[in-house]
Structure prediction request, 167 residues.
Amino acid sequence: MMRAHRNQLGLFPIALGLLVLAASLAVCIALFGCAGAAQTEPPIVLPASTTPSATFVFCDSSRPDCAGSSAFSLRAMRDVNIAVSWRNVAAGTHTQTLRVFSPDGGLFQAMNAPFRVSRNDGGAAVVTQTLPVTGTWITARHLTGTWKFFVFLDNQPMAAGDLQIGP
Prediction:
């Protein structure tokens, strides 16, 4: 009987070693993949021409010929017009949400604007919203620094922009 007991004990370290080896191999495969695994297809990426995109143009509302700027002075401006140029937006009615964050990082204002893109527009639209400056907390509290703007299309984040407002 002692021999059977010794054989069982003699196989135990080998079995334990094989179990540890198998577990280690399984962990390596899970973490790093298997080099011999079949190649998978890359994820489907839509061409850039079909993905909606947005760009910002910031203008002083008192200048009708404004080409856009990324910096303004509290003393020289009245309001900021934020024109969001949309490209590749599907035809239909959409909602633009503009979230404005003050230099301290707090949400200053959120604005919604519905707009429509027809089939003939080629997916393009420009939506302009105004951020009042003169006579608001911005001038009263001298809220200068970098303002952050985030635009959403139908509740999906699309673009971000910065605007510097100085004294």
User: Anything to note?
Assistant: The first strand starts at residue 53 and ends at 60. The CA atoms of residues 102 and 147 lie 5 Å apart. The beta strands are 53-60, 71-73, 79-87, 92-101, 107-117, 125-132, 145-153, 156-166. Helices lie at 2-32, 137-140.
